[in-house]
Design brief:
The protein has 12 helices and 9 strands. With 295 residues, it is of the alpha/beta class.
Length: 295
């Protein structure tokens, strides 16, 4: 099936640029905008066209993608200035927001889209191309109609329900992963304080009950003291905070997440927000009075 022409992508930072690149690979006539034009330069070199504003990027586009830092930016870009971005989109166009967002914000944007004869999918993503996973909320018919474009971006796509459901699914997975990381660091500290070499335990965990994807950050980024990762502490702390706020609104049990939220916030308070998210281990190492390092 031929993909819609033209499409726009607003927010081509770390994640947005990867998704926009996949659309270019699929032959889409793509217009891009970001607060930093430098972020778009690699895409422009591949044939994307630059817009001087988000409204200009959306002008006449039949499909507009957004990848923004969080809920505040989604509201500012899409609902600010009398929803100028939405007003610029072509009649019947589809907005696909890939931001890890508050589901209530996603629903407000969807409502604003509906008032203007537009459709909206909240479609946050996990991982990176070519193995990226996408969780989609919104009208099922709109989802099916836009599926060819979604498939150009993500390898695994799940329709999870009405507007906001994509955000709920993403926050739930972030909650699981990054609270699990805290438990994994604590487990490693217990072993270290009990006299077990962390490097040896790091070999045991993947073939034991402690195995998890989140654990991989420890041998890869904590035992060597680099704390480097694909995502920053600020991004992870934001996602965990959003997940915990959602749990509070739903009155869902979230005691584990509240502990994790507190620790990520504490690490931010130390000024480590721009570092890789495994740097949260420093907080727990300080509480334990030791560092997790291979012997």
């Amino acid at each position: 099936m031929t993909l819609p022409q033209q499409q726009a992508f607003i927010g081509v930072g770390t994640m947005g640029s990867l998704m926009a690149g996949r659309l270019l690979d699929a032959g889409v006539d793509l217009v891009v905008y970001d607060l930093r034009k430098a972020a778009a330069e690699p895409l422009l070199a591949r044939g994307a066209r630059w817009a001087d504003s988000a409204e200009e990027a959306a002008d006449g586009s039949t499909m507009v993608w957004t990848s923004l830092p969080g809920p505040a930016q989604v509201e500012s870009v899409l609902l600010g200035n009398e929803a100028a971005v939405l007003s610029a989109m072509a009649d019947g166009a589809v907005l696909v927001d890939t931001t890890t967002n508050d589901p209530d914000v996603a629903r407000r944007v969807a409502s604003a889209c509906a008032e203007r004869g537009l459709a909206m999918l909240d479609a946050p993503v996990s991982g990176r191309p070519p193995t990226m996973t996408m969780m989609v909320g919104g009208d099922r018919g709109v989802y099916e109609r836009t599926l060819p474009s979604l498939e150009a971006v993500a390898a695994q796509i799940f329709y999870v329900g009405p507007s906001g459901a994509g955000c709920v699914a993403k926050l739930a997975t972030q909650y699981m992963g990054y609270t699990n990381l805290i438990a994994a660091i604590e487990g490693m500290l217990i072993a270290r304080m009990g006299g077990v070499d962390p490097a040896v335990l790091a070999e045991i965990v993947p073939v034991s009950a402690g195995a998890s994807r989140a654990f991989n950050a420890i041998p890869n980024a904590v035992l060597d003291g680099s704390y480097q990762a694909g995502g920053t502490l600020d991004i992870v702390a934001k996602d965990v905070a959003l997940a915990c706020e959602l749990a509070r609104r739903l009155e869902a049990p979230s005691s584990t997440g509240q502990v994790a939220d507190s620790l990520y916030r504490q690490a931010q308070g130390e000024g480590w927000g721009d570092e890789g998210y495994p740097v949260v281990a420093k907080v727990l190492e300080s509480l334990a009075g030791i560092e997790l390092r291979a012997e």
